[in-house]
Amino acid sequence: MPASDQHKLYIKSKDSRKLVRDCVAGSEAIKTARRTDSTDQGGIYNSMGSQYLPVPNPNDDSIENQDRYAAYRTRATFINFTGYTKDGLMGMVARKPTEVDLDTSIKYAELNVNGSGLSLQGMTQSVIGNLLETGQDGLLVDFPMSAGGTQVQTAGLRAIIKQYPAESIINWRIETVDSIDKVVMVALAEEVAKISEDGFGVEDVTYTRVLCLNDEGNYVQKLYNEHDELLVNEAGESEILIKKSDGSSWKEILFIAAGSENNDLIPDKSPLYDVAEINIGHYRNSADFEESSFLVGQPTPVFAGLTEGWVKSVMKGGIQIGSRAGVLLPESGSAMLLQAEANQMPSAGMDRKEEQLVKIGAKIISDKGGVETAEASRIKFAGQNSKLGLVIINTELALDQCFDWMMGFQGSTGENVFNINKQFYEATVDPQ
Predict the structure, then answer these.
(1) Is residue 202 helix, strand or coil?
(2) Residue 289, SS3?
(3) Residue 318: left (phi > 0), alpha (psi -120 to 50), or beta?
(4) E-assigned strand segments in 178-264
(5) Alpha helix (H) residue ranges in 251-366
(6) What pairs with residue 221 in β-bridges?
(7) What is the dihedral of CA 131, 134, 139, 145, to 10 degrees?
(8) What is the biggest distance separating any 2 CA atoms in the chain, rounded to whole angstroms?
(9) Cβ proximity of 72 and 66 under 8 Å
(10) DSSP label at residue 43
(11) From CA 258, how far away is CA 57, in angstroms rounded?
(12) Which end of the chain is more exposed for a tag (fewer CB within 10 A), N or C?
């Protein structure tokens, strides 16, 4: 089995994650996504945008039908309810700054947590955003490899946290050891820019980093290239043994998957998935509404009682409609404007979905329950078990675990304070 093999649960969650990601990305992503559910049909069936806006008559591959579908897609309006909902939830979290006070040994992480200048606040926001979109986000605690030297020469090396989105956590294995479930393998997909031999061209390839426990129960890392070939470093090692500050080996994999429901490796449902589904339905209703408006929305002049001679002699140059123009008709002729009645079904569908979006958006930040007094709601709010609150709690737990691992690399055992804002609304407003 190659290192790049994907877990069945990872494969199952791909489409739902992509749906939410595309909706948050906005109109361009939605209108350019192609269908991927069939290899039997091609042509217009797999046209740009057809993943979320199916082609009305996919069996017609004519140029005329392709142009019509392109116009059908262009007229449709995608209103980014999903992205707006995410921005609103992120704004609620950011109402107050995160309370952070890390141990002296890892104090540097507050300003540079990943070794590339990302602040801890920035990573926190990124983790919460990924949990809202995909329901999962991975955090790997690592320590730069030393090329050797004295303790003074290597004193500048610091433990860091690497972030892996849900799409990168492709495989894992859990085994029961002494009646306890233990993660023994995690495979992570990493995008690598491969420079060509001439030094100018760049090719993006995917490597696989495997974190696992070896036969002795020690934590090691392996790296496989895009051909699933195991790579060897300059020292001839293909299996890198990860050690603590005292030289001892880790007996656990220093990777945690934060989730919207649980901090385990099982993919969780995105809190924004239901919003995204209705958002796509609203977009499809919009396409039908705009198509109907375009085809029959403009009035069409209709003339009756005209002779062929009258048309050729009087109307040969065409006609003009408006208060400053007149249309000459024969004695028995008549004229009228033909206009279709408004098609309310697509419009009503859009209105209904907007109502559903409001309700679903409210559920993300509200508990289930009936009517209660304003005072009871205010008291209950402090312990509200909302989806957003759960995301924040899981983010705190995941990063707290990472801080403990970082201190293991740095050789310390201090205390850390890390509290993300959970007061989404002002608690002192009046009952109304």
Answers:
(1) strand
(2) helix
(3) left
(4) 180-195, 202-213, 219-224, 240-241, 255-259
(5) 273-296, 308-314, 344-364
(6) 211, 240
(7) -140
(8) 109
(9) no
(10) G
(11) 43
(12) C
Structure tokens given for 391: 């995301």
Q: How many residues does the chain have?
A: 432
Query: What are residue 242's phi and psi, to 5 degrees?
Result: -90, 130
Query: In this structure, how many other beta carbons lie within 10 angstroms of the beta carbon of residue 1?
Result: 6
Query: Which of 82, 116, 33, 124 has the alpha carbon at shortest distance from 353?
Result: 82
Angstrom CA distances, 155 to 34, 102, 151, stand at 51, 19, 6
3-state DSSP percent of the chain in helix, strand and coil, to 5: 40, 20, 45
| Three-class DSSP category at 210 | strand
Measured in whole angstroms, how far is the alpha carbon of residue 145 from the centre of its chain?
A: 32
The residue written with tokens 């005329």 in the block is 64
Sheet order of strands, 202-213 included: 169-177, 180-195, 202-213, 219-224, 240-241
| Token representation of residue 22 | 């595309």
CA gap 418, 309 in Å, rounded = 89
Q: What is the C-alpha separation between 335 and 425, in angstroms, rounded?
A: 62
Q: Give me 315's structure tokens.
A: 């109307």
**Angstrom distances, CA of residue 270 to CA of 44, 135, 347:** 31, 4, 28
Which tokens sit at 154?
């290597």
Type of residue numbered 99? E
The two tokens of residue 357 are 């979006």
Question: What single-letter amino acid sits at 309?
Answer: G
Structure tokens that stand for 409 in this block:
């690399």
Those residues whose C-beta lies under 8 Å from the C-beta of residue 187, and which sit 6 or more positions away, are: 3, 4, 5, 169, 170, 171, 172, 208, 209, 210, 211
Chain centroid offset of residue 393 CA: 20
d(CA 177, CA 253): 14
Ordered per-residue pLDDT tens for the chain, 432 residues: 799 999 999 999 999 999 999 999 999 999 999 886 665 667 888 888 899 999 988 888 899 999 999 999 999 999 999 999 999 889 989 989 999 999 999 999 999 999 999 999 999 999 999 999 999 999 999 987 654 433 433 456 799 999 999 999 999 999 987 788 899 999 999 999 888 877 788 889 999 999 999 999 999 999 999 999 999 887 778 899 999 888 899 999 999 999 999 999 999 999 999 999 999 999 998 888 878 776 665 667 777 777 777 777 777 767 777 666 677 777 777 777 666 565 566 667 777 777 777 777 756 665 544 445 444 544 444 433 478 989 999 999 999 999 999 999 988 888 999 999 988 766 554 544
Distance between CA atoms of residues 1 and 91, nearest Å: 44
3-state secondary structure at position 189: strand
